[in-house]
Amino acid sequence: MRYLAHIEAEAGEQELKDHLINVANVSAEFAKVFGCYDWGYCCGMLHDIGKYSIEFQQRLAGSDIRVDHSTAGAQLCYERGGMYGFLSYCIAGHHAGLPDTGADSDTSRSPTFKGRLKKSVKDYQAYKSEICVPPLSEPPFDLSKAKDIDFTLSTFIRMLYSCLVDADFLDTENFMKAGKTDRDSGDSIEILLGRLQKHISGWLSNTDKDTVNGRRTEILKNCLEMGDLKRGLFRLTVPTGGGKTVASLAFALQHAVKNKLDRIIYVIPYTSIIEQNAKVFSEILGKNNVLENHCNVDYDSEEELKPMQLAAENWDKPVVVTTNVQFFESLFANKSSKCRKLHNIANSVIIFDEAQMLPNDYLKPCIAMMEELLKRYRSSIVLCTATQPALSQFFQKDIASTELCPRLEEQFRFFRRVSFHNLKTISEEELVVGLGKENQALCIVNTKKRAQNIYKKLDGVGIYHLSTCMYPCHRKRVLKEIRGRLQEGERCIVISTSLVEAGVDLDFQSVYRQLAGVDSIIQAAGRCNREGRRDVEESRTYIFRFDEREYVPGQKQQIAVTKDLLDDEADISSLESVSKYFKMLYHFRGESLDKKDILSEFRKGRYPFAKVSKEFKIIEENTKTIFINREQEADEILIKLKYEGFTKKLMRQAGQYCINVYENEFQKLYAAGMLGGISEDMNEDFFLLRTEDQYTEEMGLVLDVEFGCAVML
Questions:
Q1: Among 142, 193, 592, 651, which is most exposed with the fewest C-beta within 10 angstroms?
Q2: What is d(CA 586, CA 522) in angstroms, rounded to the nearest whole number?
Q3: CA torsion sign, 696 to 701 to 705 to 709?
Q4: Segment 617-653, tens digit of pLDDT
C-alpha cells in the first residue's frame, strides 16, 4: 500500500515517507545550530506517523472521517521514555499548539498533554514498514548547571517545536508550489559587513575628537574593534547624538562574522523607531536584506514584496527589525504561527534598542529568557540606550556585561546639549503663560486629556497638538507640518503626550516635560537642541508638576522615584543618577517585576505552555478600537470591512485610521451614542465614530465627553 502525506489537485501526491524524511532533514539542520541535530531529526521523522493509519489515508482519498494524526507520534515518544518524552510535546502540538501538561486525572477528552496521552488513536503501526525510530543523544547542555531546570527545559521544548513546525510548513509549501516558493534568505553576513565597511570608509579617517563627527567616529571604531570579542552580554551606552544606530550595526556585523552567527535582530519598543532604523539599514545593506516585522508593515500589498511576506513567517533574513512585543510574546508563545521563527533567534546578535523600555511587568521572565539565549542558543545580546537600566542585578553572576562605548563619562559630557531646570509645582495657567513666550517649544504631558486642555488654552499661529487621539495617518501629516516650521525657523509650539519622546526626529529650542520617569525626561530632552547648534544654557528642558493628582497608568512608581531624586537636587542627566533611578525603581517594584508569576508556572516537570502564552501579554488588551472615517482611503477600507469581514490584511490597513481608547473613555463615548458597529457581524472591540464633529483636525478625538451626554441622530 502507498502511504501519502498530502494530495493536492495541481501538485499531485506526496509520499508520506518522503515528507517525513524531508521534514526530519530540515528540522535537524535548524536544531544543529544549538547542538541538537539528532533531536530535530527524530522530531521530524515521527511527527506525522499517525498518517500511517488506514483511516487517515481514506480521509486523504475523500472520506469525511476525522482523524487525529498528531497524537500517535506523541504517544510513541512518551512510551519510549527518557529524552523522547520531550519530543512528545512538540509532536502533540505541531498543529494545535504546545499543550499544557495538565494533571494525571485528565481524561482523554482533555486538550492537555496528559489527556492526549490517554486518547485512543487509529492503528498506525504500518510506519514500521517504511521508517525507524531514530536514536537520541543527551541534550547538548548540562542541566545540572541550569538555574531553573524546568524553565530551561520549557525553552528547549519550544526551540525544538520551532524547528519542527517551520520544517513542516516549508516542506508542505514546497510540495504544494512545486518548489516555486519565492523565498529569498538575503545575502550573507560577510557581504553585508563589506557593504557597511564601504559605507563608513570615509568616516574612519576623522580623528578630531573635538567635533561631533569625530566623537561619533571614535564610538564607531571602538564598536568595530569590540566586535571581535567572543559571544556574550554587551552594553552600548551612547548619549543622544552619538550615532548609536550605525555603531550598533557595525558591532553586530563584525561580531556575527567573527563568531559565525547567522543574523542580527533589532528589538525596539516603538514602531516609529523601527521604521527609522529599518530605512537606515536598508540604505546601507539593501532592502532585500532587512525585514521589518511589526503591526504597521504590510507586505501583502505588492507582489514584489512576496519574499518579505514569507520571511516574516520565520524571520529568514540576515537583519530583522521587530518590537519588544513581537519578540518576547513569540518566545513565550505556544502556537506554531508565532513559534516558527524561534529557531532563527538562536545563533544571532540580538540588540535591544532603547533597552530601558524592556517591560517592567515581565522583566524577570524576559531576563530569564535572555539568559537562555546567551547560555544555550549561541546568541549575543546588546543593551543599547542613552539611559542604561540597572539590569546586572537580575542576571546570573557568571554573565557579566561589557561596555562598547569608549570613555563613557567623557562622551556624555561632550554630547550634553541641554540644561535642566526644575520648575517644581505650577498651574496650567502658569504653564500656558510660559509657553506663550516661546518661539519653538515642545511641551509633553502625561495624559491625552491634559494635552487637549492645554492646547485649547493657547492662542496664536503655529500651535499644534499631538497624541494617540489622532490616527497614525493624521499624526504623520501634522508631524510633517511641524518639521517644516521648525526648519524654516517659524513659531512652533507643540503640546504632546509621550509619543514624541523617542524615534521622532524633532529639534526645539525649549522642552517642557511634566514629571515622569528619569528615562522619559532624558528622552524628552533629546528633542531639545538635537543638532547641537545652540549653547547648552540657552537650550532648556523644564521639569514641572501640577498641584492636582493625575492617574497615569503604569507610571506611579516612576514618577515617585524621579520626584525623590529631584527633591534631593540630583543631576538627573548624570550616569550615576540614571543608575540610581533604575535601582530604586526595581527595588520598589519587587515581585511585580513578574506580575503574573510566569517563572513560577514552570515547576516540577509541569509546562503550562498554553496558559503562559495567554498570560504573557506585554500590552494588555483593555482598550477598544475606534475607526475614523475622514479620508477616501479610510472609506474604501470601511466598505471592504463591511462586505469582506475582518481579515488580517484589512485590519492592518485599517490600523492607519484607528485610535485605541481605554475602557472608561470608550464607555462615555458609547453612552453618548457616538459609536456604532461596522456591520451586524461586528467585532466587539472595533467601532466606528458616528459623530463627525467629535474628531477635529486640531486635536483628533476630543475627550470632553462625560456620562449623561447624548447625541441625537
A1: 142
A2: 19
A3: positive
A4: 998 767 889 999 999 999 999 998 888 887 777 888 8
The letter for the amino acid at 209 is K
99-103, 179-183, 451-455, 576-580: least confidently modelled range: 179-183
Taking CA 216 as the corner, what is the angle to CA 214 and CA 217, rounded to the nearest 5 degrees?
Answer: 65
- CB distance 24 to 91 below 8 Å: no
pLDDT in the model for residue 713:
45
CA distance 218 to 215: 5
- Please name the residues in contact with 131: beta carbons below 8 A apart, sequence gap of 6 or more: 17, 20, 21, 45, 49
- The whole-angstrom separation of Cα 608 and Cα 396 is 25
The contacts of residue 402 (CB under 8 Å, 6+ apart) are: 226, 229, 232, 233, 234, 235
The Cα–Cα gap between 306 and 310 comes to 6
Q: How far apart are CA 562 and CA 547, in angstroms?
A: 16
* Opening angle at CA 271, ends 267 and 274, nearest 5: 55
Closest to 221 (Cα-Cα) out of 405, 385, 353: 405
Helix axes 556-567, 575-589, angle to 10 degrees: 140
The answer to whether 273 and 503 are in contact (CB under 8 A) is yes
Q: Which of 29-43, 416-430, 668-682 has the lowest mean pLDDT?
A: 668-682
Distances (CA, A) of 348 to 254, 373, 382: 12, 9, 11
8 Å CB contact between 578 and 565: no
630-666 as b/e: b if 16+ CB within 10 A: eeeebeebbeebeeeeeeeeebbbbbbbbbbbeeebb
585: its cell numbers: 525603581
To which H or E segment does residue 283 belong? helix 271-285
Q: How far apart are CA 275 and CA 497, in angstroms?
A: 20
Confidence of residue 681 (pLDDT cuts 50, 70, 90): low
Grid coordinates belonging to 84: 523522547
Pair 316, 26: CB distance under 8 Å: no
Secondary structure (3-state) at 513: strand
Element at 7 (helix H, strand E):
strand 4-8
Residue 590 per-residue DSSP state: G
Return d(Cα 468, Cα 472) in angstroms, integer.
8
The answer to whether residues 34 and 377 touch, using CB atoms and an 8 Å cutoff, is yes
| Closest-CA residue to 405 (of 205, 241, 240, 222) | 222
Under DSSP, is residue 249 helix (H, G, I), strand (E, B) or coil?
Answer: helix
SS3 593: helix
Q: Are strands 233-237 and 510-514 parallel, antiparallel or unpaired?
A: unpaired
The set of cell numbers assigned to 269 is: 519598543
Q: Which residues contact 703 (CB under 8 A, 6 or more apart)?
A: 448, 449, 452, 469, 665
Please tell me the total number of residues recorded for the chain in this structure. Answer: 713
Sheet containing strand 623-627, strands side by side: 658-662, 623-627, 686-689, 675-676
In sequence order, what DSSP letters do the residues of 531-572 get, joined into one string? T--S-TTTSEEEEEEESS----TT-HHHHHHHHHHHHTT--T
Nearest to 324 by CA among 273, 400, 251, 386: 273
Tell me how far apart the alpha carbons of residues 399 and 391 are, in angstroms, rounded to a whole number: 11
For residue 364, is pLDDT > 90? yes
Ramachandran bin of 189, using left for φ above 0, alpha for ψ from -120 to 50, beta for the remaining angles: alpha
Separation of alpha carbons 352 and 358, rounded Å: 8
